[in-house]
Amino acid sequence: MKQLVLGCLCILSFYNSQFENHTSGDKISVSSKILFSKKDKSYSGWSIYMMNPDGSDKKVLIPFKSGMGEYNAEISPNGKTILFNTYRYGGWKLATHDIENNTTKRISPNSNYYTNGVYSPNGEMIAYEKNVQRSTHIFIADKHGNNEKMLTGTMGNENRIPSWSSDGESIVFYSEKNRVNDIYQVTIKDNQITNLTNNLSGNDFAPAVSPDGKKIAFFSDRNGYLDLYVMDSTGANQKNITANLQNKNNTYNYYKDSNLYWIVKTSWSPDGQELVFSNITNDNFDVFTIAKNGSNLKQITETPESEYTPVWGAIQLDK
């Protein structure tokens, strides 16, 4: 892989629809949007951008503040709040951004690093990574960051990228054992852990559960490339849907290129029919969309800079 420079709520079945709030008379636009992180030429760190699913109408949603910037957005199920990583409080912390009021609030309570926060299906809980001494574990808490609980205390030292099941009763994530990464599932109630991929020929990582809970998308380097796969929620029927993106620039090995693991992310469209993901084109990362069966691949960003950690969701915006 080329050396990269690090400058570089229910399920919705409609897009760009609009409705009127009859209690206040205000018009609100509910729009299908993709968020991603990118460095603006004017700043040393990332801002969070918003664009349409076809890549048009790119604009800054959460501008760079300080340090390494604003990164890794997640859209709440009601479309009103963005959960994201920020460096404005010293080291990576989680914060929420109220879209209507344009206000930001820190929710990480202490000095640990917190990353990859995601909302539960009902929006009342969050899951995230937290550094504990020299380990990274998966935690859950309420949406304000309180009443924290570790879910991966019996696992190894590297547990990353949580994704909620559609019923809110378990978390899918990836974990390392003997220098191999697999996709796992852990139940909220009793911390029962299941290895879903059991892949001996490579590393599986960065999972995302579909809105209906029937499918899981994830990345794998089992063929020597940065490929996106889709499988059943049980781990069966694993299918590479991006084999036609394989080229000399996106050859990949998780451990040799492990400084890039934080860049890679995929997310389902609100209706569960498509995915957005980041992958390598020439010498940077761009954003693509693809149907869940591997058809209709589209590259929707093409700039000299890299676009990282895309997420797809429905956002409420005042007209």
Global geometry = globular
Q: Please report the distance between the alpha carbons of the first and last residues.
A: 44 Å
Count of distinct strands: 25
Number of helices: 0
* Average predicted local confidence, pLDDT: 90
Low-confidence stretches: 2-25
Radius of gyration: 18 Å
Largest sheet: 5 strands, antiparallel
Reading the helices and strands in chain order gives: EEEEEEEEEEEEEEEEEEEEEEEEE
Approximate helicity band: under 10%
Strand-pairing-aware structural class? mainly beta
Strand % is over 45%
Structure description:
Helices cover 0% and strands 46% of the residues. The strands form 6 sheets. Strands 1, 2, 3, 4 and 25 form a 5-stranded antiparallel beta sheet that branches. The protein has a 4-stranded antiparallel beta sheet with strand order 5-6-7-8, with no helix packed on it. A 4-stranded antiparallel beta sheet has the order 9-10-11-12, with no helix packed on it. The termini are far apart. The chain contains no helices and 25 strands. The radius of gyration is 18 Å and the shape is globular. The chain has 319 residues and is an all-beta fold.
Q: What is the strand and helix layout of this fold?
A:
Layout lengths: L16 E4 L6 E13 L6 E6 L7 E4 L7 E6 L5 E6 L6 E6 L4 E4 L7 E6 L5 E8 L2 E8 L6 E2 L8 E6 L5 E8 L2 E8 L5 E3 L8 E6 L5 E6 L6 E6 L6 E2 L25 E3 L5 E7 L4 E7 L6 E2 L8 E11 L1
Antiparallel strand pairs: 1-2, 2-3, 2-25, 3-4, 5-6, 6-7, 7-8, 9-10, 10-11, 11-12, 13-14, 14-15, 15-16, 17-18, 18-19, 19-20, 21-22, 22-23, 23-24
